[in-house]
Structure formats: structure tokens, C-alpha cells
TrEMBL record:
Residues 2-90 form the ABM domain. PANTHER family: SIGNAL TRANSDUCTION PROTEIN TRAP (PTHR34474:SF2). Pfam families: ABM (PF03992). This is ABM domain-containing protein. It comes from Bacillus badius. It comes from the Bacteria. InterPro entries: ABM_dom, Dimeric_a/b-barrel, Heme-degrading_MO.
């Protein structure tokens, strides 16, 4: 399994807006080959710190996803958020190979 975390921070008062966006996400990734799960995590002590966690069957399936047209479409949609401050947020991305469960 291969897990990717995209962590970003917004103002605490914007956290619910971002959570709402993810609750209504496109779900394109759900149909990607090798996709296993999506989670949106909120830091318990810093409400404005959010992490998107994606799990794939393998690194190859993840890389296939990020090279797909659907991935490009999602990231184009983000540029059109009504709140341009949110549109400008750049996450820190970390990638992990699962070595034990």
C-alpha cells in the first residue's frame, strides 16, 4: 500500500468551509485504478490544519492517478474557488510506503 498526505493550514474560521468542500468533492479519485481510500483529517489542537490522506494499492497506481486527466481537472477546479485565499493554499505533500499493518 502507498499513502499520500497533503497537509495545509487555513485560518481556523475557514476550516469548516474547507471541510465542506471536501465533503462535496468530485470523487474522481475514487474511480482511479488502485485507489483504496480517502480521509480528511483535522488536527485536534490546530483546527485550521487539515490533511488529505489518500491510499493506493501501489506507488505506480498513485503515479498513474497524478498523471491522469481527472487529476488535472480537480486541480483546475481548485483555482476557481470563490475564496481566492483558499485557492492559493499550497499543501506540503508527503508520500509513504506502508511497511507493516
Amino acid at each position: 500500500m502507498y499513502v499520500v498526505h497533503s497537509t495545509f493550514s487555513v485560518q481556523d474560521h475557514q476550516a469548516e468551509e474547507v471541510i465542506s468542500i471536501y465533503k462535496n468533492r468530485s470523487r474522481f479519485v475514487d474511480k482511479a485504478d488502485g485507489f483504496q481510500h480517502f480521509l480528511l483529517l483535522q488536527n485536534d489542537k490546530k483546527p485550521g490544519e487539515l490533511t488529505v490522506q489518500l491510499a493506493f494499492q501501489s506507488k505506480a497506481s498513485y503515479l498513474s492517478w497524478v498523471r491522469s486527466e481527472e487529476f488535472k481537472k480537480i486541480h483546475e477546479l481548485e483555482k476557481n474557488y470563490p475564496d481566492q485565499e483558499l485557492a492559493a493554499v499550497i499543501p506540503t505533500v508527503r508520500q509513504f510506503k506502508v511497511v507493516a499493518t
